[in-house]
Amino acid sequence: MLILSIESSCDETAVALVEDGRKVLTDQIFSQADLHAIYGGVVPEIAARSHLEVISRLAERALQVAGVTRADIDAVAVTYAPGLIGAVLVGVNFAKSAAMALGVPLIPVHHVRGHIAANYLAYPELTPPFLCLAISGGNTMLVDVRDYCSMHILGQTRDDAAGECFDKSARVMGLPYPGGKPIDELSKRGDDHKYELPRPYVGQNPYDMSFSGLKTSVINIAHHCEQTGEELDKAGLAASLCRAVSESLVGRTMTAEKELGYKKLAVAGGVAANSRIRGDFQKAAQKAGYELFIPPLRLCGDNAAMIGAQGYYEFLEGHTADSGLNAYATMGL
Amino acid sequence: MPMRRWGCNMVAITNSEVETEEVGEHFGTQIPDGSVVALYGELGSGKTAFVRGMARGMGIDCLVNSPTFTIVNEYLGKRNLFHFDMYRLGGADELYDIGWEDYLGRRGVCAVEWSENVSGAFEGDEYAVRFEKLGDSSRRITIEGGNQSC
Description:
- The complex is a heterodimer of chains A (333) and B (150).
- Chain A has 333 residues and is α/β, with parallel strands linked by helices.
- Chain A has helices spanning 33-37, 44-66, 85-102, 111-122, 162-172, 180-187, 212-228, 234-260, 275-288, 297-300, 305-316; strands at residues 2-7, 12-19, 23-31, 75-81, 106-110, 130-135, 140-147, 150-156, 264-268, 291-293.
- In chain A, strands 3-2-1-4-5 form a five-stranded mixed β-sheet, sandwiched between helices. Chain A has a five-stranded mixed β-sheet with strand order 8-7-6-9-10, sandwiched between helices.
- In chain A, α5 runs parallel beside α7.
- In chain B, 47% of the residues are buried.
- Chain B has helices at 17-30, 47-57, 92-97, 100-104, and strands at 8-14, 36-40, 72-76, 80-85, 109-113, 127-133, 139-145.
- Chain B has one domain (9-145): P-loop containing nucleotide triphosphate hydrolases (Rossmann fold, 3-Layer(aba) Sandwich).
- Chain B has four helices and seven strands, in the order βαβαββααβββ.
- Chain B has a seven-stranded mixed β-sheet, with helices on one face.
- With 150 residues, chain B is an alpha/beta fold.
- The chains are: A alpha/beta (333), B alpha/beta (150).
- The A-B interface holds A 10, 39-45, 48, 82-86, 137-139, 156-161, 163-164, 167-168, 171-172, 212-213, 215-216, 219-220, 329-330 and B 17, 42-44, 48-49, 52, 63, 65-66, 68-74, 87-90, 93-94, 97-99, 136.
């Protein structure tokens, strides 16, 4: 089954062609991150307009590169939640029109479910159940993936997402947006014990996380240096921050995995690209004897191939929509 | 031009995030539907914590987290709270692009973080809540304006 998949929920406009949820024929991504760097973040109006300008051409290019015709497409899958509403709507309306014109089913896909499904593309042998930590600019969730379309959130951030903590700390440290990559690069030259940063526990649920206090601590350290004239060790701060975020994530994830009794552990989302977090997970999983799945960098960020992968399994469950499909800024998993 | 009636004017000093939430909670019990709450203050000054308290005060049992990425979080319950974050917006025009007027029409409470970025979008009858850092964890919270005392 060949699925044309669309993703436009934030920075990236992406179109892919995926076969049977596992095989990527092509994966086209147009990133608006350069445009957004000028503004220090995503500017929705620009995001929506820019998605609109490229989405159709990107779809044409996908067909060309994959060497398939419109008649070969069996279904259209699209991210319909969550994200910047104007941006998500562009993808949803394009997908609706395409499905209608081609006379094929339309499959709505939750963006975070897509990130989890990126693992199916990278690891053909991976099947549920497994535990997945989904970490990105907008989400930080520990998910019990019981089946392809049956998921339970064990814990999530009570305030800022892990990626947001990197973005905002980067801004305070005078680094570019998005902040994940520059902080990662800088941290490699720094002492990860240079600054003492908190590892907050929140509420009654041991799997819930908090990154707002960590962000505030980074801001306070930067301000103290500014006020006292002491030189800020940016590499040390970046390394200490990466260590703090990683320890917050890895500890909880390993505890949850043990409790669930699974042997398979997956990490998904853009923050999974962070080398400290990847390294710490590799060490912890090896020690505990768990099989670890982290998609390659390209599949960690937003892309449409992951939507095509999840879309296939949603279709098998009968989760399709008609032309009344709407887009949503917020939605449970 | 809407007339500003006698409204709210209060100052609170808080010494922790929990106390900031409590001030928000009290404010949430007082605030009428249809209100706009403009929040001003730098990174990490307690804006999201205040809104979390507001939701609780309004009787909404919902996870309140940062809307920086999504721009708007919707908390729906007996009453509705729309939690905006203008951190990534360039100006008031873009507020309209994301459907600001639709939200105003839904008769909930609109709480807007980083209102600095959309100055000029409000009509003068909003509550202005300002957060100033006094130390690492202490904050001065000033609430002014609105149509009703708090």
